[in-house]
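Exercise 7b. Backbone tokens:
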């Protein structure tokens, strides 16, 4: 018996296609258009080809910002992933404290990004901030508005406070999904806590940790609001990450062509590294 196919259902996805085109494709094409042209205002454009791309790729300013971005993202991943897993392992699995811990873990994620930057800006001020006064009172020479090391310390500490909870919640969900018979078999075999973690918990959390690494990489690599509110990219250009440098170029200097080229390069870097991360992690997952 021949089946009758009704393709009218495809009309239901038309609004989604239009929304995606409006929010992603059209703005992207606009940026591509600006990246190959020069404008002096008045709606007059001059075709420049790949000039801006070559300028950005050979720019020491871009290389410095990219290096700072990799340093920030690498530090964040090295701290937040192990710390999030450790906190998830320490959280209770049953009882009334489970709800309390989950709520406490979720609280930092509910704070708007610009508010996080403002909170930590006040919290870390050396004269009136609780963190600043405490560190200086303990004998540390701390001033994140003037010292590069202090600025980086505060920036990383702020991100760890804000986003480690995401890793904790994902890792905790992975732990809760492990069937109890796995633990019973481990107890019968006399497995140590490290052996349980190495051979049961870590392999079973592999998928959620893959998601956690990808999310934290992308979020930290395109971060803008928190560091801009906290340090404004300073002192000097010490914490000027790629996103801050891009905004300075586009809005501060109004170099629309170079800024558009830089944004496309920025996008391709994030896309390429995310794909590499995902490919390697999926390949490692098959080995478990």
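Sequence design result:
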């Amino acid at each position: 018996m021949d089946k009758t196919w009704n393709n009218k259902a495809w009309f239901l996805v038309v609004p989604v296609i239009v929304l995606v085109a409006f929010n992603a494709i059209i703005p992207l094409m606009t940026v591509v258009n600006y990246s190959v042209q020069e404008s002096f205002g008045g709606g007059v454009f001059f075709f420049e080809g790949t000039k801006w791309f070559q300028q950005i790729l050979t720019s020491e300013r871009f290389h410095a910002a990219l290096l700072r971005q990799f340093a920030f993202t690498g530090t964040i991943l090295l701290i937040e992933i192990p710390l999030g897993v450790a906190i998830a392992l320490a959280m209770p699995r049953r009882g009334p404290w489970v709800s309390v811990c989950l709520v406490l873990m979720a609280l930092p994620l509910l704070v708007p990004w610009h508010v996080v930057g403002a909170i930590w800006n006040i919290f870390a001020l050396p004269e009136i901030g609780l963190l600043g006064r405490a560190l200086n009172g303990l004998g540390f020479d701390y001033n994140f508005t003037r010292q590069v090391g202090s600025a980086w310390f505060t920036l990383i500490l702020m991100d760890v406070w804000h986003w480690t909870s995401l890793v904790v919640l994902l890792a905790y969900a992975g732990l809760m999904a492990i069937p109890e018979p796995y633990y019973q078999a481990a107890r019968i075999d006399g497995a140590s806590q490290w052996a349980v973690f190495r051979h049961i918990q870590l392999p079973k959390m592999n998928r959620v940790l893959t998601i956690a690494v990808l999310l934290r990489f992308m979020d930290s690599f395109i971060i803008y609001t928190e560091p801009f509110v906290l340090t404004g990219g300073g002192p000097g250009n010490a914490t000027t990450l790629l996103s801050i440098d891009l905004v300075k170029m586009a809005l501060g200097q109004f170099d629309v062509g170079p800024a558009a080229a830089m944004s496309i390069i920025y996008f391709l870097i994030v896309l390429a590294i995310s794909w590499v991360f995902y490919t390697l992690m999926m390949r490692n997952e098959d080995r478990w």
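Instructor comment: The radius of gyration is 24 Å. The chain has one domain: 61-285.
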